[in-house]
Amino acid sequence: MSKIYENAKEIYASFGIDTDKVIEEVRKIPVSMHCWQGDDVKGFENPNGTLTGGIQTTGNYPGAATNIEQLRADFEKACSLIPGSKRINLHAIYLDAQGEKVERNEIQPKHFDSWIDWAKKLNLGIDFNPTCFSHPLSGDGFTLSHPNEEIRKFWIEHCIASRKIAAYIGEKLGNTVATNYWIPDGFKDIPVDRMGARERLIDSYDQIFAEYIDPKYNLDAMEGKVFGIGAESCTIGSNDFYLAYAIKYNKLITLDAGHFHPTEMISDKISTALLFAPGLLLHVSRPVRWDSDHVVIFDDELRAIAEEIIRSGMVDKVHIGLDFFDASINRIAAWVIGTRNMQKALLYAKLQPADKLKEFEITGDYTSRLAYLEAFKTLPFAAVWDRYCELENVPTGLAWLNEVKKYEADVLSKR
Ligand code: RNT
Ligand code: ZN
Question: Is the pTM of this model over 0.70?
Fold first, then answer.
């Protein structure tokens, strides 16, 4: 144990905070790392396909994973540099079809067996997503709310197949899968029948969720959005839509940090969602002027998100997932920086005297509340973070960067 940590431990102890205990608790909070940072959301269904659905990766940093083996190797490398308990978040297009062409509405549990074996080996939980974009049948911008019944049926079938796969994974792993539904459906220009589109969307979800699935194996979560590129005038699956649907039908609400107006923060929405829905799934991201999905940094909003999770006392009901995709920097570094920051924010939030702060607030002592919050910003947090990394056998400080650079030279640059 370093001298610096000993000092830090003492300082936090003077506020009644046991840093060893905090580390023990934080290391158990799972963070679901999205597989799609590794290959710019391409997947393995059609390696030459383009990303559509109003979302975009920008940049062309070399070394992106181009097949399952590469993606897994890169993910493992990233995991080895990140403390805490981890999960992998898969999209349906990351199936292992063994060279076969499989239509999206015909994907099966067997296409994910190799992922399950791999996840077991690495002690990772898995989360899942149907992929309702980057496909010829989503080309005109509509999927589950499509006015064409045949096309809508195709997407309903895809989501039903995905949900079955998720339940299968959950059962095989003995670890609940959170399945997230996000669709790009929306109008570029002012529509005249929002109602019709939303009616169709309700009907689609009613069909998708018709079959009972044990929540031990799969939990469904629904992700709304304010707008996407090419769907600026109306998003069918808006936040209101999903909030209402999820609360009525007992589904989880997904909050993506980039899916609201720029001054609207998801940290303010966590408590409401937790008070009304059975659970919450987060897509922690960093929007810069739009839903740009920049790598998560240790900024005010990230800390606020973590503080809301921790102070709510409902951490078990929050599925923390990440959702960013930056192709302009080393993709493994992107995972490492973003995920370490999420872990850091959780640790930072736990290293605060929550009860005391709440007491100040409730008694109207806002002066002390502000004074404490500011004072805690400069306590020796970094020493506790380093201790956490040390205990988890991952590099402290910037030491991870050398490893990523070495991996880039040895592996990525040869692709
Ligand atoms: C898109 C949503 C969605 C996707 C991923 C790939 O705006 O945020 O969650 O980013 O499913
Ligand atoms: Zn998202």
Answer: yes
